[in-house]
Amino acid sequence: MALYSRQQHPELDLEYFFCDTHKELPETYDYLDRIEARLGIKIHRLSANRGFDHWLEVHGGLLPSPQMRWCTIMMKIKPLEAFIGDDEAISYIGIRADENRSGYISTKPNIKPVFPFKEQGLVKADIIRLLEESGIGLPDYYRWRSRSGCFFCFFQRKYEWVMLAEEHPDLFQQAVNYEQNHKDGRTYTWTQGETLLELLARKEEIITNHHKAIAREQKNTPNRPLAEALEAILDEENDDLPCLACHL
User: Does domain 2-237 have CATH number 3.30.70?
Assistant: First the structure.
């Protein structure tokens, strides 16, 4: 959206922001630096006054989940609305025409949402082409992940958890620690029905099934970019919507 807005409306005085939970993937920070360098812009890094660990304690150790998205409220929405304040603002939202979601829409009357991709009928293939032609390209995590968000995002699919353990074993261990370390002995899990260590014990099975699904998808749609094939396969495993305010 930053690239598209600069190309289509260079006359606009735009501000760019990223709500930083301080629990992001290293690839996400690298990508933000790449965007700033390529476009010659400054991205405001908005942070909650207190970090994830503080809000986890406030919520009694209850890990965020699709049913309890306190991380989105406290670390994404509130910092953004505090940044805007009471100024009149137009929020350009990068939801594509082929996505069945609306994204974050503020209830504050001074913030007006606009959806340029939807209005112009731009789909994922258009966005990938736009990024590739600009030289910015895709974030490196798209090799194994279909979304941004915290490294322990509860919307990750099982394959993505396995690959987190492969790509960033230190971050995977931190996610395991969040499951295990509770003062009152309660147990919380990031994925429904099993702990991360139980999931990791099925690593070979999960990877094998994923590779079979990718091969089937590429056979059925041979001209489809790998990033799109990966997203389609992961959506088959879990069709929950991603955290709408977090998706980069």
Answer: no
